[in-house]
Predict the 3D structure of the following.
Amino acid sequence: MSTSRPTGSADPGPLVSGSADPGPLAGGSAAPGGAPVAAPSGPAGGSPAALVREFHRAFGLDARDTPTQVPPAVGAHRGELLREEAEEVAEVSAGGPLDRLAHELADVVYVAYGTALVHGIDLDAVIAEIHRSNMTKLGPDGQVARRADGKVLKGEHYEAPDVAAVLRRQGWIPGDA
């Protein structure tokens, strides 16, 4: 089984197969250089996590199944990719065309899911925990406290998210490098 890992990096944990399982191929299509091209999954092709996992497998990129600390260079690279995408959103969010904003927002989500995959994090489970926590901002009386700019504030019934517990359920062992 073939896996991808940056050359010279420490073993950051189990990787999912890279090029050995590229997924379904599109009728003999090939990218420049003769590499096979995966068939598009289409709108019903799955969750963002599944789509990004398909991309990482097809292109031989890092993909881990268990939350794992990655080498600093890998983490820095993923952070740079996210920064670039966030800057593109900022450029168009105030006055850019809506189709470009939608594109840039999707790119941020795609890169965020890729970063989670590189670290072995089930991001859907983390988002669910953040959502659970955010919903506790609503008081039992149904009242919402807001800042002047409309941001919803934490009330007295707010429960902080327990992301560490979510990661532990995914196999993360705190303190492991």
